[in-house]
Amino acid sequence: MSAHVISNTGVMLGRSIRHVTRSMDTIITVTIMPIAFMLLFRYVFGGAIQTGTDNYTNYLMPGILLIAIASGISYTGFRLFNDMQSGIFERFHSMPIARSSVLWGHVLTSVVSNAISVVVIIAVGLVMGFRTSAGILDWLAVAAILAMFTLSLTWVAMIAGLAASSTDGATAFSYPLIFLPFISSAFVPTETMPGPVKAFAENQPVTSIVNALRALFEQQPVGNDIWIALGWCAGILIVAYAFAMRVYHRKVA
Amino acid sequence: MKTPPLAIQVSGLQKSYGKLEVLKGVDFSVASGSIFALLGSNGAGKTTVVRILSTLLKPDGGTATVNGFDAVAKPERVRESISLTGQFAAVDEILTGRENLIMVAKLRLVPNPGTVADDLLARFGLSDAGGRRVATYSGGMRRRLDIAMSLIGDPPVIFLDEPTTGLDPEARLEVWHEIQSLAGKGTTILLTTQYLEEAEKLADRIAILHQGIIIVSGTLAELRQLLPPAKAELVERQPTLEEIFLAIVGNKEGARR
Ligand SMILES: Nc1ncnc2c1ncn2[C@@H]1O[C@H](COP(=O)(O)OP(=O)(O)O)[C@@H](O)[C@H]1O
Ligand SMILES: [Mg+2]
Q1: Angle formed by the axes of helices A100-127 and A24-40, nearest 10°
Q2: Which of A8, A19, A87 faces B107 most closely, judged by CB atoms?
Q3: What's the whole-number average pLDDT of chain A?
Q4: Measured in whole angstroms, how far is the alpha carbon of residue B45 from the centre of its chain?
Q5: In chain B, which among 183-212 make CB contacts under 8 A with chain A?
Q6: Is the pLDDT of residue A149 over 70?
Q7: Is B132 on the interface with A (CB under 8 A)?
Q8: Which of residues 141-180 of B touch A (CB under 8 A)?
Q9: What residues in chain B have per-residue pLDDT under 70?
Q10: Does residue B179 belong to any structural domain of this protein?
Q11: Percent composition of chain A: helix, strand, coil (DSSP 3-state, to 5)
Q12: Residues of B whose CB is below 8 A from A23
């Protein structure tokens, strides 16, 4: 039975990955916007922003990666929504396969495609002066945090893809998520913000994730940030998964 | 395991969407190896019946048995016994026709997926188009691919929900031809249709679903007997199924046609 699940999920993943690689425009859209932000902040605003570091590209990188993932998952919602609309979702559910493989194919595709954009953006960042002394373990920790962040937002995207009644509905949920890094420690230190904004910025998930990633890249002590970051991701993941399952079981007998 | 004489057995099937009672106690059965047509106008509940039989939807009441397995109690066994070709061609537009077939073959753990795909492409006249993305296919080609995908794994029971709706006359003939050759191989086929002509042409038995129940079912000959023979006509003429349908239904939407 479990071999069945793995084989079925592998087929679903292969199919969905083809959807990604055959629509180059989505890959470009997903990576171009964060790269544009990186250029904008580095070469336009950067000179005026005081962060207390000498390499602003380093400072930017975590927030840019989170923006890329937040926009990348909107395509996960889009792909699932298309499956629901086209009837292929129902075809799969009428077949003698592990039903869970239908959603997990989308989830894994989301993780893989976001990992690709993260690699592309880091490569562009290196050209723009991003430097890190992070070792293997630090990189593993970075990968783990980004994977958890991707997974948790992917399940949010699954809710949208399952429940939406239009393409806009299946993708628009990501806009506020893309905006979240701007009200965080991603681009400017939170100390410069007025009281209520500062309170929001310091207590929303992006700040702890950004701080943890920055500390790992810079080989600074990560302190509690990494646990707060992982806690947020796990919390969002559990809640989103539970909601997604409720919507799923309403849609499928 | 012995093959049950009835491939599909539906009794007292009920289903409502909110306040809308769609099925109010539907009864019919389909013999193994036969073609059964569920005839009804748009919105009659044909798709609802098919979705219950293919374990996509749970009924509110009654029972549905497919290949000897209860659709609610043993959905996995039912899914092993069936293939669904839904009302709208459920194909992957971004993959090629061949990739669609290989995908289904791999999901069903059929050996040699590539060979299976090539055979089906040839059989459905899609060999030349097999390497092209489905997004470039015509409606008829999509429908043929859709049906081909349903044949993989040789399920004993196939559901075809309005297989020819929206097709041009030529494509419709191609699909009819394919359905007839399938039934010749012993597969049980339940098809739904709004076209009386289609039911007449293909089905061994026909059931008319109207206002939530099966108002009549039987062979074409049995249905014809429900109408009194024409009296004062010079040339004797058999009533068409359409006339039978109108005589039985006799409501406004029928009378308009
Ligand atoms: N998911 C649904 N929610 C609410 N109403 C539905 C749903 N599916 C179908 N219906 C309604 O149920 C009736 C029967 O639909 P359907 O089974 O699709 O009919 P048919 O296939 O014969 O055209 C229609 O009035 C349709 O609008
Ligand atoms: Mg229908």
Answers
A1: 40
A2: A8
A3: 89
A4: 13
A5: none
A6: yes
A7: no
A8: 149, 153
A9: 1-4, 227-240, 250-257
A10: no
A11: 80, 0, 20
A12: 94
Give the bridge partners for B21, in sequence order: B16
For residues A40 and B37, the model is more confident at B37
A 10 A CB-CB count for B29 gives 16
Domain total for chain B?
1
* B119/A contact by beta carbon, under 8 A: no
* Bridging pattern class, strands B205-210 and B157-161: unpaired
Q: In what order do the strands lie in the sheet with B6-17?
A: B20-31, B6-17, B61-66, B69-70
Residue B155, in any domain of the structure: no
Structure tokens at A89: 């979702």
Maximum distance among all alpha carbons in chain A?
A: 60
What digits encode the pLDDT tens for the residues A207-219? 999 999 999 998 8
CATH number at residue B56: 3.40.50.300
pLDDT score recorded for residue B257: 41
Residue among B96, B85, B37 nearest B217 (CA): B37
Q: How far apart are CA A132 and CA A134, in angstroms?
A: 5
Six token digits for residue A246: 């409720």
Domain containing residue B75? 6-86+190-256
Burial code of A10-35, b = ≥16 C-beta within 10 A, e = fewer? ebbbbbbbbbbeeeeebbeebbeebb
Residue type, A19: H
Q: CA torsion B92→B138→B81→B39, rounded to 10°? A: 130
Pairing of strands B69-70, B61-66: antiparallel
ipTM of the complex: 0.87
The single-letter DSSP state of residue B58 is: -
- In sequence order, what are the residues at sequence separation of 6 or more whose Cβ sits closer than 8 angstroms to the Cβ of residue B79? A94, A95, A96, B54, B55
> What pLDDT is attached to residue B254?
42
The whole-angstrom distance between A151's CA and the closest CA on chain B is 25
C-alpha distance from residue B121 to each of A14, A110, A142, B1, B114 (Å): 21, 32, 47, 33, 11
Task: Go through chain A and tell me how many residues it has.
Answer: 253
Q: Is the pLDDT of residue A49 over 80?
A: no
Q: Is residue B68 part of a domain?
A: yes
B164 within 8 A of B195, measured Cβ to Cβ: yes
Six-digit token string for A216: 């790992």
Please name the residue whose Cα sits nearest to atom 9 of ligand 1.
Answer: B48
Pairing state between β B6-17 and B20-31: antiparallel
B208 within some domain: yes
Cβ-based neighbours of B76, under 8 Å, separated by 6 or more: A96
- Number of CB atoms found within 10 A of residue B42's CB: 9
Other Cβ atoms less than 10 A from the Cβ of B200: the count is: 18
